[in-house]
Amino acid sequence: MQKRKLEVCYTPALLPLYDIKNAIVVVIDIFRATTSICYGIENGALGIIPVANVEECISFEKEGYLLAAERDGKVVAGFDFGNSPFAYTEDKVNGKTIVLTTTNGTHAIDESKKSAYQVIIGSFLNLDAVCAYLKNQDKDVFLLCAGWKNKFNLEDTLFAGAVVDQLKKHNYFLDDASIAADDLYQVAKKDLEAYTAKTSHSERLKNLGIEEDIKFCLNLNTVKSIPILKGDKLVKM
């Protein structure tokens, strides 16, 4: 049986270097977009429409959807909410459709959907569910870290490493980026909160007074839902 490829891309800026037409792309933005998306879908959101910019988000205003916009860690003025997971509780999102734009996560989704075989959303909240799904698909796996404004970040890379850790004993050929992400995860996995405390994005969120968001985003396997991109909307698989 031919080995499938398992690749990690540390930033969407590197995406043009890869061929992902036969790959399931897992988009990763741990602090906080993909965590909030997973939590919102688990809590009954009918769908989440990721859009690249604030103007496009505003264009959905007459549709009766919830509008969510975040830039540089803050809710954009005039919007219902941003990308804090605590805004995606059942009482707020159940039965609703949300239009979402964020600094990094929705950009990564927008870039990957152009050529990927399939796009799904990963977070520590649904780590085991994502890995179980990937193992059972006869497709390459491409772990796309949203990073920070097209630059490398630690927390997304650690999640990529956590996925590699579960898949590496199966029938995959790992690229060097996957091996490096796995090595980093082995260093950090005993205390993810302590390790990620030194990340630059963690510092940004602390400066905004939202440390609880960081803790929430590091919870392991609290949801079973996997958001999958169908057309232009993320829905429950």
Distance between the termini: 27 Å
User: What strand line-up does the widest sheet have?
Assistant: 7-2-8-1-9
Spans with pLDDT under 50 lasting ≥5 residues? none
The percent range for helix content is 25-40%
Structural class: alpha/beta
Instruction: Give me the Rg, rounded.
Output: 16 Å
Tell me the overall shape.
Answer: globular
Strand content: 15-25%
Q: Can you write the helix and strand succession as a string? A: EEHEHEEHEHEHEHEHHHHEE
Number of strands: 11
What's the mean pLDDT score? 94
Largest sheet entry: 5 strands, parallel
Q: How many helical elements?
A: 10
Keywords, please?
237 residues; alpha/beta; 4-stranded mixed β-sheet; 10 helices; Probable 2-phosphosulfolactate phosphatase; ComB-like_sf
Describe the 3D structure.
With 237 residues, the chain is of the alpha/beta class. Helix content is 35%, strand content 22%. The strands form 3 sheets. A 5-stranded parallel beta sheet has the order 7-2-8-1-9, with helices on both faces. Strand 4 and strand 5 form a beta hairpin. It starts with a strand and ends with a strand. Keywords: Hydrolase, Magnesium. Its cofactor is Mg(2+). Its EC number is 3.1.3.71.
